[in-house]
Amino acid sequence: MGDLLRPLRLDIFPETGFIGPEQATQVTGRHLSDMRGMYQDGRAAEAMTAAGDPLLYQVYNADIPDEPPHILFGTTVVYPGKVGSEYFMTKGHYHAIERTAEVYYCLKGRGMILMETRAGDVAVQHLERGKAVYIPPGWAHRSVNVGSEEFVFFFAYPGGAGHDYEAFEGLGFRNVVVDREGRAVVVANPRFA
Amino acid sequence: MGDLLRPLRLDIFPETGFIGPEQATQVTGRHLSDMRGMYQDGRAAEAMTAAGDPLLYQVYNADIPDEPPHILFGTTVVYPGKVGSEYFMTKGHYHAIERTAEVYYCLKGRGMILMETRAGDVAVQHLERGKAVYIPPGWAHRSVNVGSEEFVFFFAYPGGAGHDYEAFEGLGFRNVVVDREGRAVVVANPRFA
């Protein structure tokens, strides 16, 4: 067999996003304190961080070598909640190797995927159970939970693609998703005004 | 935006494997007559082909360019049934570019994934709803429905990977899955004896 990896099976729990077995899974958790400056309402973010620093999302990665020609896969779980009027969301990133794609398949909850390109194009797709979104090469992506339960989706992307969060540490994404009288609305990020 | 493809959303119906919208989906159906010589019981295969040539499986592909750096995804639906004592299955293939991987996530039913390498290594993984299988680079793969309803799974693999069916047109896979008194059993392919 030489250097060939052996096939692998994992159990995915759609209700929680949890993947097993544990020894074949890497877990990354992001708290509000990991996202300083990313929410419009800095005062609300500071207060919530001080009051317990909530867990906003977790990523479960199947333990596969992060290099070509592997495909990495796992689940992302974005918890329900808001910071001010803005919903809990992931940091969002370009792939470090930008000409790489990603596919999502939603297992639970309701979310929006905010996407944009270096050239300033923007796109938004809604996800709910049974829907898939294709993120073509070159599109940054951020996942937002606009529902009242966990937003869980399966993802797959090429090993070695990497993550570039830096582009969004200043102004953020060009769109933000806010609660307007109980409805999730996509609005232009005021910081770009 | 230049040559960047725009993000795409598809609806996947886990009960049937059907993907919509139709204009964004390519469908490939395989009948028993497309699999001449692949079942051990040639007489049973001939009789069933003459008696109506059943549809064994369908593949729904999201309409994404089949080239790097895209990721192709969709669903495979293997229908329940047997040819002699052997369960309905896919043709099975290596990727034409062998050092490419694939991931499956099961949506419905019960199946087995037969895998093997050019060096003669073999592996079998069981799939049912909520379970994922990783097919590492270099492993041929065939999907077998060992249950009584449709076996449906979501798949993702790199654009341009291609399919090489030729390796299995002679002896077939090294393992076959047969019904032994109502139980699905993996046995060595007698043609390799």
Overview of the molecule:
The structure is a homodimer of 193-residue chains. By secondary structure, chain A is mainly beta. Chain A has one domain: Sandwich (Jelly Rolls), CATH 2.60.120. Chain A contains one helix and 15 strands. In chain A, strands 3-4-5-13-8-11 form a six-stranded antiparallel beta sheet, with no helix packed on it. The first copy, chain A, has a three-stranded antiparallel beta sheet with strand order 10-9-12, with no helix packed on it. In chain A, strands 1-2 form a two-stranded antiparallel ribbon. In chain A, a hairpin with a 6-residue loop joins strand 1 and strand 2. The longest helix of chain A has 9 residues. Chain A starts with 7 loop residues before the first strand and ends in a 5-residue tail after the last strand. The mean pLDDT of chain A is 95. Chains A and B meet through strand 1, strand 8, strand 10, strand 11 and strand 13 of A and strand 1, strand 8, strand 10, strand 11 and strand 13 of B. Strand 11 of chain A pairs antiparallel with strand 1 of chain B, so a sheet runs across the interface.
> Strand order, biggest sheet of chain A?
3-4-5-13-8-11
Count of separate structural domains of chain A: 1
Largest sheet of chain A: 6 strands, antiparallel
Instruction: Please compute the radius of gyration of chain A using only Cα atoms.
Output: 17 Å
* Level-1 CATH class name of chain A: Mainly Beta
Level-2 CATH architecture of chain A: Sandwich
Give the low-pLDDT segments of chain A. Answer: none
If you consult CATH, what is the topology of chain A?
Jelly Rolls
